[in-house]
Structure formats: structure tokens, C-alpha cells
Amino acid sequence: MRTRLIIDTDPGVDDAFAIALAALSDDVDLLGVTTVFGNVPLSATTRNASRLLALCGRDDVPVAAGAARPLVHRHPREAGYVHGLDGLSGRAASLPEPSRELEPVDAVTLLANLLDAAEGPVTIAPIGPLTNIAALLAAHPRCAEKIDRLVIMGGAIGHGNSTAAAEFNIWSDPEAAHRVLAGGEVPCVLVPMDLTYRCAVSAEWLSTLAATGPVGAALEALTPDYLDHYRKALGWDGIVVHDAVAVAEAIRPGTLRTERAPVAVECSQGPGRGATIADLRRRELREETGTAEAPSAGIAVDAELDKLRDFLFERLSRHEN
């Protein structure tokens, strides 16, 4: 069964792997890619998304630029220290120039148009800040019925990475994240960094991927700055392909084991800003405290790690569409 998929993204090295995963999968109808600020400014994320599609031979996929800043408060810090100043370890210019122009409409309009035109339910994989998705649900509420589910890379149930409490994507626009996750309009699967860290791949895995062909080699070449960061974060030679884990679940539902729980996002200006609060208490206790009927999301908690890595490798080593 083919998956109708839209990716909303802020490339980003792990976004690069996620976009390639979808673009190279013959069981995916990649309807479009929309971009958002995040790891680097919107101009760079948009350029990176178009170049990555060109790398994969997918100039048929429309790209539209979206939000350049959060809904309410300005973005306090980009992630150039992780991804490099251009988002791709300083190597974005090594990717091919796209032959397709950007869409003449904004990301929210493209999302609404693609959903309206789709012949069946569409999965959206938001793998950056949730600003575009919050705006879509607010401005085009009719679109909710065409969304099969949102598979969101973001959040942290334990400790964060941007702060002690918050993961980068959610921390970048907590108000938008709360609107999407606690709004209840669309089924959500949240893929938090607690799980994605466990799905990390080694430098040896990357080298083996590079040897499979031009796409694998190009992806591996984008990782030096990212690899340097994750040597510190992991304590060993590897990277965390956060966004590719979420897109794997979007393509093949059930790749990740999930548990349903009410989810909220801390939107205060205190040290907990951007924290993802999942109520993992037993339902009986939630009922007793009056929170059992709160909107919930599927929280990805586990995966068959070797099987997942094999799936990523097999798809990313493909050369033809």
C-alpha cells in the first residue's frame, strides 16, 4: 500500500536523511515538501530542501517556503552549532541545483491545496518546528479531515537537548506545538528524542552507506559537523538521525511501538519552556484526577533497532526512482 506523504522540514542533516528516505521509497507518493525556520534560517532550509530533492532526482515534488519565525516569541537560537551554518555541515553547495522553481504560494497554502486535491487521506511528517502545521489547522480547519495522521519528530519525555527540559523542535515554537499536540483535531504520533537517540547509527554505518552509490556518498558527506556534535552528545562515533526515524514510521506504520497519552507543552517563559509533558499515569489515576479525556497522542517508546537501521539503509542506498 502506498503512503501519501507531505514533509514539513527545516533541513538540517537529519532532515536530509529523512527527505531522501521518502524521496527514494517507491511505496511513497511524496506530494510535497514545505519548509520552516529552525536549524538555520528559512532561506537556507528552503534551499536545502530543494537541493536534496534534486539529489534524489525528485524535481517533480513541489516545495514551498513557510514560516520564518515562531507564532509568538522570536526564535532565541538556531542550531548551526549542530548542523553547520548552512544546515548541512557547510556542504550545501555541493548538492545539485534544482531545476524546479519554488511554488509561488506559501507553505500553508500549498499544504491546504495538496490536501484538498488528494484522493485519500494524507500523512504529514512535521520534522521541524510546528509553526506551519499550527497555522494550517487554524486557517484551514476543513483540512483536518484529510489528514490521516501527523507523525511528528519532536519532544522529550526525559531531558531535552536545547535546554535541560526541552527538545529543539518543540522549544523553537512551544505555542505552535501546544496548538497541534493538545488541539485534538488530528491523530498525532510523537517521536521524541528519548527514542531517536537509541536509534543512532555509527560512523561505520555511514561509511558503508557512502559506498553504495552517489546518494549515499552525498548524504555521508553532509555529516562532518553533525558527527562532531554527536561525538560529544553520544560519547561514541555516530549520529542521531532523528527525523529519519519519524519518516520511517510515517512510511511504514507500526515501525515504532507507541503508547497513547495526553500531551501538553510548557509555554511559560521559565526554565521549563518547551518541555513536552506526557501524562503516562494509568488511566484509572487520570480519571480520578479528571484528566482522562484530554486529547492524546501516540508516544513512540520503542523499536526493533537493528530492523529499523536495516530499513533506513536499504531505502537510502537506492539509486533509481
What would your notes on this structure say?
This protein is an alpha/beta fold and 321 residues long. The chain has one domain (3-316): Alpha-Beta Complex (Inosine-uridine Nucleoside N-ribohydrolase, Chain A). Helices cover 38% and strands 18% of the residues. It contains 14 helices and eleven strands. It has a nine-stranded mixed β-sheet, sandwiched between helices. Strands 7-8 form a two-stranded antiparallel ribbon. α5 (131-139) links the parallel β4 (122-126) and β5. α1 (13-23) runs parallel beside α12 (242-251), α4 (107-117) packs across α5 and α9 runs antiparallel to α10. It is globular and about 55 Å long. It starts with a strand and ends in a 5-residue tail after the last helix. This is Pyrimidine-specific ribonucleoside hydrolase. One of its GO terms (cellular component) is cytosol. Keywords: Hydrolase. GO terms for molecular function: purine nucleosidase activity.
CATH superfamily: Ribonucleoside hydrolase-like
Principal-axes shape call: globular
CATH topology: Inosine-uridine Nucleoside N-ribohydrolase, Chain A
How far the N terminus sits from the C terminus, by CA atoms, comes to: 17 Å
Pfam family, one: IU_nuc_hydro
Keywords: Hydrolase
GO molecular function: purine nucleosidase activity
GO biological process, one term: purine nucleoside catabolic process
